[in-house]
Amino acid sequence: EESAQVLYDFSAEPGNNELTVKEGETVTITNQSIGGGWIEAQNSRGEVGLVPEDYIEVPSFPGAGTTAPTPSFGNVAPPDLSIFDAYAPPAAPAQNQASNGNDPWSVWNADPSGGTNNNWASNPEGTQTGKSAADPWGSISQGHPQAYQGPGAEDDEWDDEWDDMKSTGGYAESESGESGAMQRGGAHASSMKISLNKFPGFSKSGPELYLLCKQLPKGKEKLPIYLGEVGPVWSYPESQLDCVVADPKKGSKMYGLKSYIEYQITPNTTNRPVNHRYKHFDWLYERLLDKFGSAIPIPSLPDKQVTGRFEEEFIKMRMERLQGWMTRMCRHPVVSGSEVFQIFLTYKDEKDWKTGKRKAEKDETVGVMIFSTIEPEAPDLDPVEVEQKCEQFSKFTKAMDDGVKEILTVGQEHWKRCTGPLPKEYQRIGKAFQNLSSVFTSSGYQGESTLTDAMTAAGKTYEEIAQMVAEQPKKDLHFLMETNNEYKGLLGCFPDTIGVHKAAIDKVKEADKLVATSKITPQDKGTMAKRVSTMSYTLQAEMNHFHSNRIYDYNRVMQLYLEEQVKFYETIAEKLRQAHSQFTTM
Amino acid sequence: EESAQVLYDFSAEPGNNELTVKEGETVTITNQSIGGGWIEAQNSRGEVGLVPEDYIEVPSFPGAGTTAPTPSFGNVAPPDLSIFDAYAPPAAPAQNQASNGNDPWSVWNADPSGGTNNNWASNPEGTQTGKSAADPWGSISQGHPQAYQGPGAEDDEWDDEWDDMKSTGGYAESESGESGAMQRGGAHASSMKISLNKFPGFSKSGPELYLLCKQLPKGKEKLPIYLGEVGPVWSYPESQLDCVVADPKKGSKMYGLKSYIEYQITPNTTNRPVNHRYKHFDWLYERLLDKFGSAIPIPSLPDKQVTGRFEEEFIKMRMERLQGWMTRMCRHPVVSGSEVFQIFLTYKDEKDWKTGKRKAEKDETVGVMIFSTIEPEAPDLDPVEVEQKCEQFSKFTKAMDDGVKEILTVGQEHWKRCTGPLPKEYQRIGKAFQNLSSVFTSSGYQGESTLTDAMTAAGKTYEEIAQMVAEQPKKDLHFLMETNNEYKGLLGCFPDTIGVHKAAIDKVKEADKLVATSKITPQDKGTMAKRVSTMSYTLQAEMNHFHSNRIYDYNRVMQLYLEEQVKFYETIAEKLRQAHSQFTTM
């Protein structure tokens, strides 16, 4: 047992054996070998509970501060990024140019086979940045950053699924959270969750690496882009991948101290279910973001976007949203065709999964280098057209983001009214009719029942309507909100994707000056122009994919919404017609 | 020109040439011969305008303080009311016994043929009491009491119809106005508007006059009560009288300084329209209250119960309520059969009307003496049964009053929501859909219109729904509110009616003691019991009339309400079905 200083405030999740601590507080470590990123501590009032390890300054904690990856370069020569004054951090060239091999891509991924860390959790700051930026809800929800996973932590540890339950109400937060707007304001580089931020000092995710790469890596990956009716389009598979997320099962770890939920995912290709926990989805998300994030908006997982105050409701909601997320990924021809996505859906056994994981984590075609795999089957685009397209998409996604948020705000308000004051009012109307009816019953007047029976029935009808009104949002508004919520998340990724694109356009604009000052050769300039054209084809293909999905999704959700609304009003009308028929005036 | 002291606060009606004055303020009389109960005054700021005469202490005002009627007794000997210690005011016997002729009923009505005053306006205090008690809204509305009508005032002067426009919202006030409850609390005598309060010192409207009257007046009026299926019932005419109030026309008086509205009333008996101004309705109300108020609840005129901020809306509303009031009076077999009511509906010319008016004002069968015309064709009732019935009716009317007020409160709230936040919300939903649709239109993506046309239409549909929601209360809730409002007014009269009845029961209970102390003879006691039985038959007939009308009215209004509600929800469902059909997911 030893004393330790608390570094950050931590709020315990009730019923989770946790201990609330305050920054600066001194606690006594009662058990340091809990594992899973937690230690057991006792506060001055004698209360004992779990606290995340990285919230406490434990002098002798093994593995802390030893997680910085050793950069190792692969077989491609790194470009001299210092030529872009605007982007080169003043005091960081040493790292940029540090060569520890001949593969520059290996720096993006610390070798996971070493088992020293799970790369997305090794840097709490990076994780936090990712949360508050990629996920507009992240900055609002009370969840603490994922606890550090020490060197001894097993691959399939507990995850903090339950901590997410702290967040309340998925839509309300959407308005107060301005991280999305901030992101759009130009800070996209730092918010990008691609692996660049893991390499100390290399904080920019600019497209220079791809634009000026002397020799593009020759992998077997090829992502063709065709010219379709609507313009550049991805190559779509003949049959669309789909999967069903279902059957959540509770499991527990650490002698029941921590529990988790395992979901069953069944793809339509194999029809064979695989099991995954939320943390595996998160792993997949990180891989997809690393690999495709520069070209394809990869929406955040529904981690913090949970509603529901009860465990079952929470699980149902998370599953529904994981299903939505998976469906969207399945629908994307590039994502769904990727090796990492296939492994996630079709691994045969634990060993197969672990091998697949390791392989995916070693993937070097990540970040802006994804553009190197893209092969547009079309003539190079004029830089002016590239810029125009980019501007158009930028404006459109911004405008749609506003429109979607407006619907969410209005929908949220309507939801509140439909579940709050409105049914209460109908209930009161119903009660008032019934009360008057029972007064009438007391009149002692003959033939009174011809009125009172009908009035009581009318009163009950309004009480039924009250209940219908209160339950209706779950039947229609829910899907309208979920779809718009999903689009809000998706649209929140565009600023990053478009940001990379704009940065590339800016670089090409600088090309003449760079040639003039002999910083690059005229040939380099030609390469840059060609590559930015490839990037534009990618963006256009992605926008066309987005538009096509959007038109389908909004047609679908509006149909669903209106269908349920029609049913709702028809049912009310029918109920009232019944009530009406009971009154008589002879 | 002379200075005068302002006695009460008076708020000028904008656009009506009036002057706002404060109690205690000194003004200069600039024109005392305006007439119509008004004088022109100038305040210290030099502003000139009309002020009601009785709001200002004008020393030499002719006719002020000279309106006390000279009591004159008719051909029936007045009972010695001093025997009821509880009721006899200690220092008032002189007036009670003052005999100025042999007709005691003439004291209730100052001789109108003398033209000194219109009797309901001659006593501002009495008028005010009547307003705040009989009309629960009266105490809330800002209207000032009707101005004193001086000796020179013509019969058909302007009335202060426009002043009523100050009151806003008919239903909201119903809750804050507790005058109805106070009335029920036992202060019924002072609030009764029957002419008793015009005879100074005789402030109680107890039933003694009738119970102990030595010799009942023998008029030609006979009001039989039969034993019907439901118990004692009035004698109903074969065809029911009805009338239509329509065609309001604006006229003006005093060189355009004051304007009034004349309504056309057409009874179904003659089918010949007669014209009446609001003040004539008020005159009729006063006559009916004087004559039948002790036995039959005569609801207040809709004077202060006006809604509508615009002149047209106000006139429409007042007309609608006058129609409701007239319909209710027409439906009452006793009221509709009375001479005064018939004169009002069928007078042939101005002279006929004036003659009829004078005759009605001379009517001596008023107050509790109405019971002397009632002839129950049934055996006398046991006093115990009389009391039980009375208790039952008292409880019922009180309970119904509560029930009706609950509906008014709830309806008022619902009205507010339906015309306020709810349509705004639907409008915002509609706008949000349309906004998103117009963003989509800007995508430049092919085939976008398959979505955007439908979304725009859906958005417009919700805007239409918003308008429907806002307009719906006028179509359904309005009648539900009006009916309940009418019943609230009617129920507010019952405490007085029942109060007279209870007082009579109490008197009969005292009979034995009075006989023992030789204050009355055993024969008197028998007469009292018989007369209280007659009163009970009257109350029962009236309650049965009330119940029968109530059952019809509530069946009718509920039918109407639900019918419109069904239409409303069906129309919305149909509109949404249309909107739904425009979306496609192929």
From TrEMBL, chains A, B:
<keyword id="KW-0728">SH3 domain</keyword>
<feature type="region of interest" description="Disordered">
    <location>
        <begin position="87"/>
        <end position="187"/>
    </location>
</feature>
<dbReference type="Pfam" id="PF00018">
    <property type="entry name" value="SH3_1"/>
</dbReference>
<dbReference type="GO" id="GO:0006886">
    <property type="term" value="P:intracellular protein transport"/>
</dbReference>
<keyword id="KW-0472">Membrane</keyword>
<dbReference type="Pfam" id="PF10456">
    <property type="entry name" value="BAR_3_WASP_bdg"/>
</dbReference>
<dbReference type="InterPro" id="IPR001683">
    <property type="entry name" value="PX_dom"/>
</dbReference>
<keyword id="KW-0653">Protein transport</keyword>
<feature type="domain" description="PX">
    <location>
        <begin position="241"/>
        <end position="351"/>
    </location>
</feature>
<dbReference type="GO" id="GO:0030659">
    <property type="term" value="C:cytoplasmic vesicle membrane"/>
</dbReference>
<protein>
    <recommendedName>
        <fullName>Sorting nexin</fullName>
    </recommendedName>
</protein>
<feature type="binding site">
    <location>
        <position position="277"/>
    </location>
    <ligand>
        <name>a 1,2-diacyl-sn-glycero-3-phospho-(1D-myo-inositol-4,5-bisphosphate)</name>
    </ligand>
</feature>
<feature type="compositionally biased region" description="Acidic residues">
    <location>
        <begin position="153"/>
        <end position="163"/>
    </location>
</feature>
<feature type="binding site">
    <location>
        <position position="279"/>
    </location>
    <ligand>
        <name>a 1,2-diacyl-sn-glycero-3-phospho-(1D-myo-inositol-4,5-bisphosphate)</name>
    </ligand>
</feature>
<feature type="compositionally biased region" description="Low complexity">
    <location>
        <begin position="167"/>
        <end position="180"/>
    </location>
</feature>
<feature type="compositionally biased region" description="Polar residues">
    <location>
        <begin position="114"/>
        <end position="131"/>
    </location>
</feature>
<dbReference type="InterPro" id="IPR001452">
    <property type="entry name" value="SH3_domain"/>
</dbReference>
<keyword id="KW-0968">Cytoplasmic vesicle</keyword>
<dbReference type="GO" id="GO:0005886">
    <property type="term" value="C:plasma membrane"/>
</dbReference>
<dbReference type="GO" id="GO:0035091">
    <property type="term" value="F:phosphatidylinositol binding"/>
</dbReference>
<dbReference type="GO" id="GO:0000281">
    <property type="term" value="P:mitotic cytokinesis"/>
</dbReference>
<dbReference type="GO" id="GO:0016197">
    <property type="term" value="P:endosomal transport"/>
</dbReference>
<dbReference type="GO" id="GO:0036089">
    <property type="term" value="P:cleavage furrow formation"/>
</dbReference>
<keyword id="KW-0813">Transport</keyword>
<feature type="binding site">
    <location>
        <position position="318"/>
    </location>
    <ligand>
        <name>a 1,2-diacyl-sn-glycero-3-phospho-(1D-myo-inositol-4,5-bisphosphate)</name>
    </ligand>
</feature>
<dbReference type="InterPro" id="IPR036028">
    <property type="entry name" value="SH3-like_dom_sf"/>
</dbReference>
<dbReference type="InterPro" id="IPR037426">
    <property type="entry name" value="SNX9_PX"/>
</dbReference>
<dbReference type="GO" id="GO:0097320">
    <property type="term" value="P:plasma membrane tubulation"/>
</dbReference>
<dbReference type="InterPro" id="IPR019497">
    <property type="entry name" value="Sorting_nexin_WASP-bd-dom"/>
</dbReference>
<dbReference type="Pfam" id="PF00787">
    <property type="entry name" value="PX"/>
</dbReference>
<comment type="similarity">
    <text>Belongs to the sorting nexin family.</text>
</comment>
<dbReference type="InterPro" id="IPR014536">
    <property type="entry name" value="Snx9_fam"/>
</dbReference>
<dbReference type="InterPro" id="IPR036871">
    <property type="entry name" value="PX_dom_sf"/>
</dbReference>
<dbReference type="GO" id="GO:0006897">
    <property type="term" value="P:endocytosis"/>
</dbReference>
<feature type="domain" description="SH3">
    <location>
        <begin position="1"/>
        <end position="61"/>
    </location>
</feature>
<dbReference type="InterPro" id="IPR027267">
    <property type="entry name" value="AH/BAR_dom_sf"/>
</dbReference>
